């Protein structure tokens, strides 16, 4: 294990049976220009597939084991922070990875501005044949960095609910923090949305946050119909509860035609047409479900139902 004085960056990763993806994740860390000043803190929730044994073979990784029944996106990440020795803490997940050797270096660079308390990057989907080609990353620009800060809590609260939401597009798949900021303002113990809510609280507190779309990790979950429906519903529900904003945007019938057009344009296998039809249909269904619950004052009943059905990602393939 490394000398704590050498560690500048701590990478916190919740893990549960991650052997299918962890080697790729670790390879990305090993390629980092700041590897010598980096540690990885794994919070393992009862893996039984060899993940723990594999991770313990690396001298820059330490594994903290917890009872899987106690896992919680917010609370578990807070626990991870207590085991971090770095001044900066990167939050990510076991199935995300990077091929950018200066990924950590460019994130840390934003903290030269002493007002910056967090930096959020972008997750993208690689051009792999087993991944939905309609979701492949096709950038229209090189990306850029944007700093967001409000002088007072009142200044933030004068924004419309939609504007508040747009300022808080935070993502713990690829977010770095000053450790002290997480000590002073820990995550709420939530099963979903701890990152978005943290961004809201941080901006209310007067912290400066940076969104840098040039800092990217690859990350993909196969969207089988049930996953799409639940994920969209839970995400939009959380946004409604957190920001009092109902994001009614969804697909229209023209999008079905666009799927067919793009499938031919990009020379994709025919199977992806039906797959993306299912995504559109379930996105529309989830949006309608939430809209109906709001209209009919059944939001509390929906909240009770969703609390037990937070969907997890899948590596399934068509």
TrEMBL record:
<dbReference type="InterPro" id="IPR001173">
    <property type="entry name" value="Glyco_trans_2-like"/>
</dbReference>
<feature type="domain" description="Glycosyltransferase 2-like">
    <location>
        <begin position="10"/>
        <end position="139"/>
    </location>
</feature>
<dbReference type="Pfam" id="PF00535">
    <property type="entry name" value="Glycos_transf_2"/>
</dbReference>
<protein>
    <submittedName>
        <fullName>Glycosyltransferase family 2 protein</fullName>
    </submittedName>
</protein>
<dbReference type="InterPro" id="IPR029044">
    <property type="entry name" value="Nucleotide-diphossugar_trans"/>
</dbReference>
């Amino acid at each position: 294990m490394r000398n704590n004085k050498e560690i500048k960056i701590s990478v916190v990763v919740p893990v549960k049976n991650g052997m299918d993806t962890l080697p790729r994740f670790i390879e990305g860390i090993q390629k980092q220009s700041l590897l010598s000043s980096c540690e990885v803190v794994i919070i393992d929730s009862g893996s039984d597939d060899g993940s723990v044994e594999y991770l313990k073979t690396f001298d820059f990784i330490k594994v903290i084991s917890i009872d899987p029944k106690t896992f919680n996106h917010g609370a578990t990440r807070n626990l991870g922070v207590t085991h971090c020795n770095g001044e900066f803490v990167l939050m990510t997940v076991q199935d995300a990875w990077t091929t950018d050797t200066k990924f950590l270096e460019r994130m840390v660079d934003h903290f030269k501005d002493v007002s910056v308390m967090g930096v959020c990057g972008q997750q993208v989907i690689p051009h792999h044949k087993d991944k939905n080609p309609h979701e492949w990353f096709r950038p229209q620009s090189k990306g850029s960095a944007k700093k967001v800060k409000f002088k007072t809590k009142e200044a933030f609260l004068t924004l419309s609910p939609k504007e508040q939401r747009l300022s808080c597009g935070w993502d713990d798949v690829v977010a770095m923090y000053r450790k002290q900021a997480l000590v002073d303002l820990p995550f709420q113990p939530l099963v979903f949305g701890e990152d978005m809510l943290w961004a809201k609280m941080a901006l209310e507190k007067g912290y400066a946050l940076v969104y840098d779309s040039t800092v990217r990790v690859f990350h993909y979950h196969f969207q089988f119909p049930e996953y799409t429906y639940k994920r969209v519903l839970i995400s939009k529900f959380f946004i409604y509860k957190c920001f009092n904003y109902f994001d009614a945007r969804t697909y229209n019938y023209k999008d079905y035609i666009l799927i067919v057009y793009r499938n031919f344009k990009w020379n994709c296998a025919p199977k992806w047409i039906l797959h993306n039809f299912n995504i559109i249909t379930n996105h529309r269904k989830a949006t309608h479900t939430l809209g109906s619950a709001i209209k009919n004052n059944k939001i509390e009943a929906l909240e009770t139902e969703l609390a037990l059905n937070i969907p997890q990602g899948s590596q399934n393939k068509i």
